[in-house]
Design a protein that fits this description.
Layout lengths: L9 H35 L8 H14 L6 H19 L4 E4 L4 H12 L5 E4 L2 H10 L9 E5 L20 E6 L2 E2 L9 E5 L10 E9 L6 H6 L3 E8 L2 E9 L4 H8 L6 E8 L3 E2 L2
Parallel strand pairs: 1-2, 1-3, 5-11
Antiparallel strand pairs: 3-6, 4-6, 7-9, 7-10, 8-9
Helix pairs in contact: 2-3, 3-4
C-alpha cells in the first residue's frame, strides 16, 4: 500500500498546493512587515549598512544542508537569493554594478540569479568603472551600491585589485556562488564589493593586493606552499601585482612575513568573504 491515500483526487491535491502557495505568500508578506519594524529599530539606533554577508552565508549553509526532495537546489538557492536581495533593497535601496569586460551573458546570469530583477543592474566596461561606481555611491548611513567583479579574470593592463587597497576604497565582502557544485546555473566565480562595512562582514577567507618589487615574483606553487593562494597576477612597471587569498585571520604583516616579501614590496588587505559551502 502506498503511503499516499488511493482515494486522493487531483482536485484535492491541487487544493493542497493552493493552500501551501497561500501560506508562502502570507509568510513573505509577514517577512515584509518585520522588515518595516527592522527599519524603525535601526533608525533609532543610528542606521547602518543593510548588507550582512556573514549572516547570509550562515543562512545559506543551513538551507543547503537540510534540502532534500524533488525540487532542485538550484531553484531553492535562487529563490532564497532573490528574497534576501529584494528585502535588503526594500530596507535600503541599492543598485548592482557589473563589470562586463569579460563577457555579458555570464555576468547577467549571475546578477539575475543572485539579485533578481527588482534590484537595479548597471553595466560597466571595465573593473575600474565598476569600482568607481560603487565608491561614489557611499552614504553616511553606511549604505551604498554593490559591485560584481570576476574573481579569476581581469584585463592584462588592469590590476583592479590594487584599486581596493586604499582604506576608504570599496572592499570585497562576498564570493558567489556560495554553494559549490558542478553545473551551477550561475557558476562564474564572482567577487562582490561594497563600501567598507563596519560590521557583519564574513571573515573566513582574507584577500590581499600584493605588489612584488625588487625581485621576480615566484610561481603559484610558492604561494601555495606559503599558506595562501594566487588568484590573479599582472605585470606592473617594476614587478608584478598579485591577488592572493589567505586564511581569514591573516594580516598584511603576517602575509608579508610568510612570503618573505622583498622590502620594496607591499601587501594590502582588500576584503574578506565566507568559506564556500561544498555540496557533497
Amino acid at each position: 500500500m502506498s503511503q499516499f491515500s488511493a482515494l486522493e483526487s487531483l482536485a484535492e491535491l491541487r487544493e493542497e498546493i493552493d493552500r501551501i502557495d497561500g501560506e508562502m505568500h502570507n509568510l513573505l508578506m509577514e517577512r515584509g512587515a518585520i522588515i518595516d519594524r527592522l527599519i524603525t529599530v535601526k533608525a533609532r539606533q543610528g542606521g547602518g549598512s543593510a548588507f550582512r554577508p556573514g549572516r547570509e552565508a550562515d543562512m545559506m549553509r543551513v538551507i543547503a544542508a537540510r534540502h532534500h526532495g524533488r525540487l532542485p537546489l538550484d531553484t531553492v538557492e535562487s529563490i532564497w537569493r532573490v528574497i534576501i536581495s529584494t528585502f535588503t533593497y526594500v530596507q535600503s535601496n541599492y543598485a548592482v554594478h557589473a563589470d562586463m569586460s569579460g563577457g555579458d551573458a555570464a555576468m547577467r546570469d549571475s546578477a539575475r540569479f543572485h539579485f533578481g530583477f527588482t534590484v537595479p543592474l548597471s553595466v560597466h566596461a571595465s573593473p575600474a568603472e565598476t569600482i568607481r561606481a560603487v565608491a561614489v555611491s557611499g552614504r553616511e548611513d553606511g549604505g551604498g551600491d554593490l559591485g560584481m567583479l570576476r574573481a579569476n579574470w581581469g584585463p592584462e593592463d588592469e590590476t583592479w585589485w590594487r584599486k581596493l587597497a586604499a582604506g576608504t576604497a570599496p572592499k570585497i565582502i562576498a564570493r558567489l556562488p556560495f554553494v559549490e557544485r558542478l553545473n551551477h546555473p550561475a557558476g562564474t566565480p564572482i567577487f562582490i564589493i561594497s563600501n567598507p562595512l563596519a560590521e557583519a562582514a564574513a571573515r573566513d577567507v582574507a584577500l590581499f593586493s600584493v605588489d612584488w618589487r625588487g625581485a621576480p615574483a615566484p610561481g603559484d606553487g610558492y604561494f601555495h606552499d606559503s599558506g595562501c593562494e594566487s588568484l590573479a597576477r599582472a605585470p606592473i612597471d617594476d614587478g608584478a601585482s598579485l591577488l592572493l587569498s589567505t586564511p581569514g585571520d591573516w594580516s598584511a604583516e603576517k602575509l608579508a612575513a610568510a612570503l618573505a616579501l622583498p622590502p620594496q614590496g607591499e601587501a594590502n588587505w582588500i576584503g574578506s568573504h565566507a568559506e564556500r559551502f561544498a555540496l557533497k
